[in-house]
Amino acid sequence: MSLNKKRRASTEMLVIAAVLTALVVVLQLLCSFIKTGIFSITLALIPIVIGASKCGAKIGAWLGLVFGLVVLLTGDAAPFLAVNVAGTILTVLLKGTLSGLCAGLVYKLIEKHNKYIAVIVAAIACPVINTGVFALGCFAFFMDTIASWAGGGDAFTYLFVGMIGVNFFIEIATNIVLSPAVIRLLNLKKQ
């Protein structure tokens, strides 16, 4: 690959990453008004999957980190910040960063066989990692608080049914449908 082609590819990746960064911020800000329970629906995972698929795991991790920062700054994490600041920051930043990183790694692993399937698996991995790390953070830092929120009910059931359930299914469904569709549209442009 010539130096000009490398520079052009590098510039293209930088532009895609910048546009997707802005999209993550805008989507998360808009979605902060769409709540199920105390949490917002997260559509920002879609540009994270797109970035991880088109630009790699490092860009996916960056987009996930930006997503985590926006969650912290918009007040979506406020109920947890009131309980444990360090645990909240660690959980929120880690869940976003790891979801983007893992989406990129999964995509890279599978793309050699089938790029379309790779996007679908990355679109599944991203919300699974995001929600899984959130659940682990809840177990590590917030189970006493979640038990009090459950009002005498089972904290485990409240966490998985009341807090995570609906959001997770909406996030995974939108990711499975929209991420591959957007990637296909972006790939049409190149043909």
Fold topology:
Elements: H1 3-31, E1 35-36, E2 39-40, H2 45-55, H3 57-74, H4 78-81, H5 85-111, H6 115-141, H7 143-149, H8 155-190
Antiparallel strand pairs: 1-2
| CA-based shape | elongated
Pairing-aware structural class of the strands and helices? mainly alpha
* CATH class wording: Mainly Alpha
- Rg, please? 17 Å
The neighbouring-strand order within the major sheet is 1-2
Key terms for this structure?
191 residues, mainly alpha, Arp2/3 complex 21 kDa subunit ARPC3, two-stranded antiparallel ribbon, 2% strand, elongated
Describe the structure.
The chain is an all-alpha fold and 191 residues long. The protein has one domain: Orthogonal Bundle (Arp2/3 complex 21 kDa subunit ARPC3), CATH 1.10.1760.20. It has helices at 3-31, 45-55, 57-74, 78-81, 85-111, 115-141, 143-149, 155-190; strands at 35-36, 39-40. A two-stranded antiparallel ribbon has the order 1-2. Helix 1 packs parallel to helix 3 and helix 5 runs antiparallel to helix 6 (115-141).
Condensed summary:
By secondary structure, this protein is mostly helical. The protein contains eight helices and two strands, in the order αββααααααα.
